[in-house]
Amino acid sequence: MHSEQKRILLQILLFVTTFFTTTLAGAEWCYGKLFISIFPFFYNPEFTWADFILGMQFSVPFLLILTVHEFGHYFTALYHKIKSSLPYYIPVPPLLLSLGTLGAVIRLRSKVPSTRKNFDIGIAGPLAGFVMALAILYYGFATLPPAEHIFTIHPEYKQYGLDYADHVYNPNDTTILNISLGKNLLFTFFEHVVADPERVPNVHEMMHYPFLFAGFLALVFTSLNLLPIGQLDGGHVLYGFVGFKKHRIVASVFFVAFIFYAGLGFEMIRPTNSADTLIFWIPVYGLILYSCFMGLGLSRRDTLMYTVVVFAAQYLIMFLFPAVTGYSGWLLFGFVIGRFVGIPHPPTELEQPLDTKRKILGWIALLIFIVSFTPQPINFP
Q1: Which structural domain range is residue 267 located in?
Q2: Nearest to 58 by CA among 20, 90, 93, 87
Q3: Which phi and psi angles does 158 have, rounded to 5°?
Q4: What's the number of domains the chain is made of?
């Protein structure tokens, strides 16, 4: 078997596996159907083929958006005669609260020679995926079932009627895991303009509506891809606008601000915690910050300086303004970017200024980032 055939076989296998894991994730998130029992992490015999079919109501639209995004990159690369692989999907085991995937990537097998071609390939994916996400979200909000639909997922809510929210969301009850989805500008628009207000689900129940959940996650991934950092799609866009030198400055400032916001949500280092807790978690958090800032490409001394200054500023804000908080979930993303991707963008052979059409597309990408970004996407109160 030739290497190309092996590569295609691997890509097919990854896609099929990702379809399987995201379908199982959809069955769990949307319908509470666990494929693997919580303990001892074995197959749950109560999970049926019908449950798998239900999970496809999430996996099909979610993977459709993801696939359109990646093929936006792929076909644009082919248009510019840049050799590119088909998408490599990244499956995640169907454990508790898994989304079933970390997304997908394509590999460019030849160097992109110019800023414009780099810009085109980078921006094509988010634009294509966003259009598909809009279509799926419109369908999801326009076809919402009656509010009583939630009783088919949570029959225990029926005793309270449609006022169930006043009874079941008790933040002091640690026996119930009340997960809620955050809001972004686009979701708010669809809720007020497209949907029947009486059918819009509570934020704690939004994940039980597979088209809404798939569209929501697609917006989260799209906004992360559009961060103006490194070789993310947004990094390619920024590089096209400002070139190599300015990209490094803007991307570094944005990355530090992003990590600063994320760290404000790391509850274990709040000054109100006990001394024993702080003694253990402050060094752990410092190591996380240092690992993130390694992506800046600075010396060890400067990386350590950034770590100390950012931590000191975060700690001071937590002490003076305890109500201010961030979202610690972004620290994992920041760690991956800082440790394995990097913040600077590699230079292209030919730096060409963008023409007017490309600049307009770049501003549209910025608008997509603004309306799609969710500061706190998934909350565990």
Answers
A1: 233-371
A2: 20
A3: -60, -30
A4: 1
